[in-house]
Amino acid sequence: MSMYDRMATAALLSGQYDDGLTTKYEVAVGTSPNHVQHNGGIGRTAVRFETGASGLGSSVKSVWIRFRKYGLQTGNITINIRKASDDSVAATIGTFPIESFPANVETELVLRNRFNNGWNMLAGDMVSIEYPSNAVNGLEMTTNSTASDPSNYTSKSHNGSVWSAALSDPLAVIIKT
After folding, report:
1. Which domain holds residue 73?
2. Which of 27, 39, 71, 103 could hold 137 in an S-S bridge, CB 3.0 to 4.6 Å?
3. Is 10 in contact with 109 (CB distance < 8 Å)?
4. Separation between Cα atoms, residue 34 and residue 145, nearest integer Å
5. Element (H, E) at 109
6. Within its chain, how far is the Cα of 89 from the centroid?
7. Residues lower than pLDDT 50 in the chain
């Protein structure tokens, strides 16, 4: 991937490259954020579109995440759309190398699929943030400890075998169509 493509698909500041997109899910960081650690057990965190979610029937084009990394990681953070039917990848919104970010610092990342991912969200589908971490080198997704998931959306984590019930704190994520 060329530097131009990275710049066109990812921005380090929220709000860039949105081009008039419609926000479907938004949870701010809040004043007392917590974190879900991708730690060797958890390798994915996601927002599930439940029946009645405002984003159903739409194609996700932009995802804003808030996270911090720890240790000396390499590899890509990937944002995928995962199908409810079999948990397979329906589309990839984008990837970005984790080594581009400083360790132990809250970081914002916006990934944008400029070319339309071609998948319209169905009930139960998830926007999944994926990074294979361990106890020494990894990714921590920021959550809001005083908010709730917006109506008809559920924040979840995946332990390598199954998705969790709802997380106690929603992911600090913005999803746009």
Report:
1. 3-176
2. 71
3. yes
4. 6
5. strand 107-112
6. 14
7. 1-15
